[in-house]
Write a structure and sequence with these properties.
five-stranded mixed β-sheet
Length: about 290
C-alpha cells in the first residue's frame, strides 16, 4: 500500500458533508502529506484542517478563478508536486468544482487518484426507500427558462430513481414545477441536512410535500429523490393484436400460448387476447391499418 503521496499526482479527496467523523483515515493522511491543497473555499477548508491539525498550505480553486488557477496547478503537478483537490463538502466534481482540473490533468497525462468520501446523493439514496439498483443523478436543475422546462420534460419518462439537489429558497418553486410536469401524485423523498444534527427524511407524494412546506419554511440543503416513471405497456389496436396473433400461430404456437405471450407484452388480459385468438385464422396476416 502506498503510504506517502506519489509525486506529480492529483488526489481528489472527499470531505464530510456535515458530520466531521465521516472523514476517512486515508483522507486525513493524504491531506497531511501532500504538498498543496487546492480548495473551493480556503476559509471553509481551513476549519476542517484545523480540526484535524493539518498544516498543509492551501490555494483557492473555485468556479470563478479556475481558468487562471488550473494552468498554475497543472504546472506544479508536472514539476512533481502532489496536490489534493477538495471542495466545501463531499466529492469534488459532483455538483461542485473539480471537473475542469481533473480533465486538464487527464489530458496532460497527470495521474488522478480518487480518495472516496461522503456524497449527499448516495447517502440520501441509500436511506430513501426508493429503488437503488438504477438511478439518474441530475444535480441542480437550471434556475429558470426553457433550459429548466426541457430538463423537467426529459424526466417525465425517466424510469430510474432521479436525484436532484436544491437550495432552500428555491424548494417551493421546484416542487411546484415538478408537480406540474411529472404529476402531483409522483412519489418523492426529501433528505435535509444529511449527517447533521437536524437530519430529516420526508416521504410522500409531490402534492403532499407541497402541502408540508406551505406552513414550514424550508431550511438547510435538500436532496430530492423522485420515483421513476412507471413503464407503460404498449397500447395496440385490435387489428394489430390480431395480426400479431396470426404471426405467432403461423410460427406453430397454440392460441393459448400466443395469448399468454401477448398479454405479457401489452396491457390486455390473457383471456381478452385469447377471445380474439379464437376469431383469427392462420391465413394471411391481418391488416393492422384496417379500420375496426
Amino acid at each position: 500500500m502506498q503510504i506517502q503521496p506519489k509525486p506529480g499526482t492529483l488526489y481528489v479527496v472527499g470531505t464530510p458533508i456535515g458530520n466531521l467523523e465521516d472523514i476517512t483515515f486515508r483522507a486525513v493522511r493524504i491531506l497531511q502529506a501532500v504538498d498543496l491543497i487546492a480548495a473551493e473555499d480556503t476559509r471553509h477548508t481551513g476549519k476542517l484542517l484545523h480540526h484535524f491539525q493539518i498544516q498543509t498550505p492551501q490555494i483557492s480553486c473555485h468556479e470563478h478563478n479556475q481558468q487562471q488557477r488550473i494552468p498554475e496547478l497543472l504546472d506544479r503537478l508536472l514539476q512533481g508536486k502532489a496536490i489534493a483537490l477538495v471542495t466545501d463538502a463531499g466529492m469534488p466534481g459532483i455538483s461542485d468544482p473539480g471537473y475542469e482540473l481533473v480533465s486538464a490533468c487527464a489530458s496532460a497525462g497527470v495521474p488522478v487518484v480518487p480518495v472516496p468520501g461522503p456524497t449527499a446523493a448516495i447517502a440520501a439514496l441509500s436511506a430513501s426507500g426508493l429503488p437503488t439498483d438504477r438511478f439518474a443523478f441530475e444535480g441542480f436543475l437550471p434556475a429558470k427558462g426553457q433550459d429548466r422546462h426541457r430538463r423537467l420534460e426529459a424526466l417525465q419518462t425517466e424510469s430510474r430513481t432521479v436525484i436532484l439537489y436544491e437550495a432552500p429558497h428555491r424548494l417551493r418553486q421546484t416542487l411546484q414545477d415538478l408537480g406540474s410536469v411529472l404529476g402531483a401524485g409522483r412519489q418523492i423523498v426529501l433528505a435535509r441536512e444529511l449527517t447533521k444534527f437536524h437530519e430529516e427524511f420526508w416521504r410522500g407524494t409531490i402534492a403532499g410535500c407541497q402541502a408540508h412546506y406551505t406552513t414550514r419554511e424550508p431550511q438547510g440543503e435538500f436532496t430530492l429523490l423522485l420515483a421513476g416513471a412507471p413503464v407503460s405497456a404498449p397500447v395496440l389496436s385490435e387489428e394489430a393484436i390480431k395480426a400479431e396473433l396470426q404471426n405467432l400461430l403461423r410460427q406453430g404456437m397454440s392460441r393459448s400460448e400466443a395469448a399468454r405471450q401477448l398479454s405479457e407484452q401489452t396491457s390486455l388480459k390473457r383471456r381478452q387476447i385469447y377471445q380474439l385468438a379464437l376469431t383469427v385464422e392462420e391465413g394471411a396476416p391481418a391488416d393492422p391499418d384496417k379500420p375496426v
